[in-house]
Amino acid sequence: MLTVDYDLLDLGPGMTVLDLGCGEGRHAFEAYRRGAKVVAVDWGVPEVETTKRWLGAIAEAGEAPEGAAYEVVRGDLLHLPFPDASVDRVMASEVLEHIPDDVTAMAEIFRVLKPGGRAVVTVPRYGPERICWALSDEYHANEGGHIRIYTAPVVRTRLASVGLTPGASHHAHALHAPFWWLKCAVGVNRDSALVRAYHRLLVWDLTKRPWLTRTAERFLDPLIGKSLVVYADKPATSIGLSGAGGAASAERGETAAAR
């Protein structure tokens, strides 16, 4: 299940791409299959091991083209272990909503991107996420859970505050929003026949990609798509890392002053 549109990310063979907060690697896998040099990053040890194992399986199966490469590392998104201006693309999917200091994470994305590079961030969309929070504290109020609900203007403003230039955006996974509403309504960890039935529908859609559900989701994404996806570029002639860091510091200061 991919949230990122790789054509809008403009990811080409041979490019170096970071997948930040890679989880179990779904976006890293597709980038690797497209011939990129993928570096998947996560803080969780199980996530790192799972992603490494599956990327190895893709390599052994010959599903990646010649020239593609991968690496999986454990790393902190607030202190990325990569040099300045060293990567072509950055993906951060469904991770910023977990990070208290999200502006510093965005500043790190700016820092490691080459001038002219592109990043994509995806976060839960305001409307569907607000419904989940209203239905269930269990959904978000747990260790490592979601700590904020973004609006699109906030995402774009914070990206711009670190020196990135926000561009295209879209929504994704409309069929998943009702699934999570159901889970929140009956209890996130409770067994339910209705939730199981809906989950089977999602698995069918994921594995078979039938015309009916693909068409339905395409029309519903602008209305109830569960994820907001925003693409942003690092200017080819940037303001410099000190300027970006200063903007990030100012943003944090403004946030603190508003509390």
UniProtKB/TrEMBL annotation:
Domain Methyltransferase type: 18-120
GO molecular function: S-adenosylmethionine-dependent methyltransferase activity
The organism's place on the tree of life at top rank: Bacteria
UniProt xrefs under InterPro entries: Erg6_SMT_methyltransf, Methyltransf_11, SAM-dependent_MTases_sf
Any matching Pfam family: Methyltransf_11
Keyword match Protease: no
UniProt keyword terms in alphabetical order: Methyltransferase, Transferase
GO biological process annotation, one example: methylation
Record's protein name: Methyltransferase domain-containing protein
